[in-house]
Amino acid sequence: MRVLIVEDESALAAQLASALRSAGFVVDAAKDGEEGLYFGEEFDYDAAVIDLGLPRLDGMSLIRKLRGAERNMPVLILTARGNWQDKVKGLEAGADDYLTKPFQMEELLARLNALIRRAAGYSSPVLEHGDLKLDTAKKEVRVGSDAVELTAYEYKVLEYLMLNPDRVVSKTELTDHLYEQDFDRDSNVIEVFVGRLRKKLDPVNPIRTVRGQGYRFLSESDG
Amino acid sequence: MKAGIQTRLLFTTTLVLGSCLSLAGYILDRSFQASVVAGAEQQLRLVTYSLMGVVDFDGTRLGLSSDLPEPRLNQPESGLYANVLMRERVAGWRSPSALTTDVPFPEHVLAMDPGEFLFTEVDDSKPPFYYLSYAVSWGADDGAVLTFTVATEQTEFVRSISRFRQNLWFGLGAVLLLFVGAQLIALRWGLTPLRQMAEEVRELEAGDREILSRSYPPELSGLAGNLDRFVEHERRSRTRYRNALEDLAHSLKTPLAVVRNAINEANGSPSELLREQLARMESTVHHQLSRASVRGPVIVGGTVELAVLVERLVRALRTAYVERNIDVALNVERDLRARGDEGDLMEIFGNLLENAFKYTRSRIRITALKVSGGVETVIDDDGPGIPSHLREEVLHRGIRADEMQTGQGIGLSVVADLVQLYEGSLAIENSELGGARLRLVLK
Predict the structure, then answer these.
(1) Which ipTM value was assigned to this complex?
(2) Which chain A residues are within 8 Å of B263, Cβ to Cβ?
(3) Do A86 and A63 meet the contact criterion of CB atoms below 8 Å apart?
(4) What are the sequence ranges of the domains in chain B?
(5) What is the pairing mode between strands B62-64 and B80-86?
(6) What is each CA distance from B82 to B50, B57, B72, B97, B154, in whole angstroms?
(7) What is the pTM of this model?
């Protein structure tokens, strides 16, 4: 999952980035509204965390511009003022949830996960496809009643595919959303991960290979 | 209630003018009466002289040397009578007019010295009379003294006086009425700018007007200008104050967030103490800043349409709580307006509605209607409710009834503070939906 953080306070931005990275997110951090807009328009994100009080371009305008540019990822706003006029205006500008500073990092992570899930059309933190269950809160995967041991990257691949069901996801898109930019972008690595994932999920096999294009997660579990 | 300016001015001037007119009327009345009596005396004197010219006295008998000069003296009951007496009562004469009428001529006039005039008013006889008596020595030296008395009925004179009096008071009354009318018109016209100003200040209070109009007479334009500057100053200083508080909030809360996260990352023994103190700092900063940034029911405020405000909040909260699939029944009367600053009202309703969204299981019902004390809003949910022993604490001390959900206690106590500032009331009750019912009344 690739997340954009737009926060001008460098200490808080660094903490956010580190907390999100340890929760398995790929993070880009922008330090003002203009930079946030550049990142948001240039790259594809699964979610954004935007502070309302930003230099150069305030958070409210940034959200409006991103929505205007048809960037529809879920947006969580952070507000220090915490007043309702700001929250309502932020939500009216196109944000999906708000958090008042200071906040608990766990709460931010929970809200962010919920937003990403919601955007994919799931209402429960446990994503289910037939016998396959992925618990986004506990980061656990089960087939039937058996727990499946996955590495962090295998889990990320599965989660991303499950959150984008019935859509062809290219290998490039997967690397973009699952790796920091300076990681090895060799697409063979993805093939290896997907291969191992299929083995571990056996007997269910919802991941289809679309030749020359990428992968598709079938929401109908036809085996 | 104190009397208005118009009433005061009208009352005073009417009182003063009324007194002046009464005094003038009294003086005029007295002078006219005096002049009428003097006229009567003068008339009687002339009759006396002419009578003296025709009276003939030879020492024993009184007679007339020729016809009476005044025909009314010959005519019975004509109202003009005369008699002549001789001191020793040897002889006397009465005018023919007095022969058939019993005119009570005064007797004491016999004691008058010759050459003396005496004018008498007798009001208790029927009819009342004026008398003029004149004593005169008749003949050369034997010293016979004749007393001439002419009497006239007062009726004519009294009638003319009362006619005059009637005209006088009627005229003065008309003057007074005319004056009061003119005064009323003048006051109405003169006080129009004040009335206009009062009306505009009322509109200013209600938020229907930004500044006073410029059409005031010179006596008031200074005041109107000052009032405008005051209002503008108040507005600006409020904004400045708010901005300063928001800067303060921003510059305090972001470092607090950083510190909190740093503590959470470093798992050591002092972290529990630090976390606890930090939580206290956070809640103090949040609570005090929320309280301080309240605009309050200021003199120059506005009204907010409740339906619009609540709908905006509900729409926003639905976005944030979309996956909860909450059924919200909105029953807010149209054109229901709450008096106050929009930001403040948004804080009140935002916190109350957020609580409802946070704690409800599936249903929220919002009902607002006009009541005698203002506007009543009832928010029901089907969540766990708030146990009765915690209600006071939740409203008044910022204690969190549920430590798991952040912000709840602080939110409600901020609302309670705000509501108190607006002289409204907030009560927690049991909802028939099964959860909490918050009953808010704003003036």
Answers:
(1) 0.73
(2) none
(3) no
(4) 5-159, 218-292, 303-442
(5) unpaired
(6) 12, 16, 10, 8, 15
(7) 0.60
